[in-house]
Amino acid sequence: xxxxxxxxxxxxxxxxxxxxxxxxxxxxxxxxxxxxxxxxxxxxxxxxxxxxxxxxxxxxxxxxxxxxxxxxxxxxxxxxxxxxxxxxxxxxxxxxxxxxxxxxxxxxxxxxxxxxxxxxxxxxxxxxxxxxxxxxxxxxxxxxxxxxxxxxxxxxxxxxxxxxxxxxxxxxxxxxxxxxxxxxxxxxxxxxxxxxxxxxxxxxxxxxxxxxxxxxxxxxxxxxxxxxxxxxxxxxxxxxxxxxxxxxxxxxxxxxxxxxxxxxxxxxxxxxxxxxxxxxxxxxxxxxxxxxxxxxxxxxxxxxxxxxxxxxxxxxxxxxxxxxxxxxxxxxxxxxxx
Amino acid sequence: xxxxxxxxxxxxxxxxxxxxxxxxxxxxxxxxxxxxxxxxxxxxxxxxxxxxxxxxxxxxxxxxxxxxxxxxxxxxxxxxxxxxxxxxxxxxxxxxxxxxxxxxxxxxxxxxxxxxxxxxxxxxxxxxxxxxxxxxxxxxxxxxxxxxxxxxxxxxxxxxxxxxxxxxxxxxxxxxxxxxxxxxxxxxxxxxxxxxxxxxxxxxxxxxxxxxxxxxxxxxxxxxxxxxxxxxxxxxxxxxxxxxxxxxxxxxxxxxxxxxxxxxxxxxxxxxxxxxxxxxxxxxxxxxxxxxxxxxxxxxxxxxxxxxxxxxxxxxxxxxxxxxxxxxxxxxxxxxxx
Lengths: 338, 338
Description:
2 copies of one chain form a homodimer. By secondary structure, chain A is α/β, with parallel strands linked by helices. The first copy, chain A, has 2 domains: about 5-125 and about 305-335, Medium-chain alcohol dehydrogenases, catalytic domain (Quinone Oxidoreductase, Chain A, domain 1), CATH 3.90.180.10; about 130-280, NAD(P)-binding Rossmann-like Domain (Rossmann fold, 3-Layer(aba) Sandwich). Helix content of chain A is about 25%, strand content about 25%. The first copy, chain A, contains 9 helices and 15 strands. In chain A, the strands form 3 sheets. In chain A, strands 3, 4, 5, 6, 7, 14 and 15 form a 7-stranded mixed beta sheet that branches. In chain A, strands 10-9-8-11-12-13 form a 6-stranded parallel beta sheet, with helices on both faces. Chain A has a two-stranded antiparallel sheet with strand order 1-2. The longest helix of chain A is centred in the middle third of the chain and has 14 residues, at about 130-145. At the A-B interface, helix 7 and strand 13 of A face helix 7 and strand 13 of B. Strand 13 of chain A pairs antiparallel with strand 13 (about 275-280) of chain B, so a sheet runs across the interface.
């Protein structure tokens, strides 16, 4: 059996997460039992939600247990199988965690899914045609539910969720304005992802300044917003929201290290008769087939070509993850393990 | 024609509203034109939303114009009519404003509505079977949409909206916990309005203390909340909200004088996958008939017997209104004009 390098959560962050929270170990992969499959991971997904699970506090998911392999989505190839539904060579999506190999109980439904790599690159099943894409789809379709000609905004616009959101919104005839960190990301959002405009929040370090930029980019006001960041970005959106605007609240990455992140003026929710709804896409498994179908078609027809930031080797995962939390990635953050 | 005493908005509040913002004048009632009706007001409704309209700032309604009669709902009796649909003696609900008489263009739909006073006291059409009742109904039925056995909470529980909310929630089999100011109101909420429990927020001057009291009163957590007050009350609710809890945001009376009212931890909206929705009942005229039907039945069958605070005479309206903003009223605040 091959050796398997793993990253464990060694201790919980005190404030900001650091590389020392993780520990790299090497173990033997076990013998398979009936029904099991050994998967060699090609890519490991790094996602902002993982930061929340590193804390031992109330959240929508159980905390990541200490001393165990960091959990996370993976794509890879079946290299051994004692399950008749999976053959060696099958490409699969699973939740294998931060390690080079995983043993999957493939007879349990939903644990492992075979995917087609003829029209969609394998890594995209962790991004545009995976959980981040479905997250964008759910917030747009089920919460914001825009009419044609609506003006929509999204923070972290060039990330895995943001790039999918942009393509999905354009397909519905909406004006879509991104918020991202830095001129390179903003240029990329407009020139490659097809956003109608993109605001560099680093040029607007408070809600007042950002809301002025939003006024210029959204002359008809904001009808719907997808929030990944929180803090003063959300305050600025509320200042430009139209009556009956909807906010899909998906992440508040600005607060993951424990800073207090108050909302300055919630009275605007009332004045504008807004709806703000928090969600996590794993609560809504029923929408995945419909969402993945649309996302796969957007990729296959070239309408969604998201960028990826790829770190090489399991040992690079902690630094890549910490960079993601600081917005250093450009598009979907992955770790390549082959 | 009778003399008509009126209260005008003389100047806008700087911070807290004061009696000097209003001016009492006396005018002659004009001759009626064809289609018009002269109504003698029996009761004038005082409502928290009026405070917002005294400011000259963006809100869901146009500001109250300076130098004009304060706007507001009224019930009264037709004393002259040049409209074939209304006869002298008809009891009517309208939007006559802070004055003793009003001339209504009764041919326009919705301006004046005849009401039955055989089963429902006339004044109730300004409260339980009027705008406040429909407000409670909309927030409960259309936003919170509780299941049986849900635990619901409401601030300003003994007011016109709160008392209707309690009766409507009990009719749906919910546990309903009020928040009110002072032991008398809390006793009244439980003993007369049928709340399962009531918390005196004066005993809990911060979110931490109030949330502890909520934990005791709501051992299964909070599934739905109706907010009239805002500020630390809402912060405390968020700390006890269950997954998928819904908040109907109807008023933030704590912020009407311009104090900043931040929300301490909006990340809880995400963690609990909550929905927070602001609304104003006049956006939803389509629900009024259904809501009034249910509210009228609750009153007629004795299941909703709200208390009223009644000030006497038009000249008492400013002080009664300022008292309402400070929670000095007990139940629906009215001014009797006969």
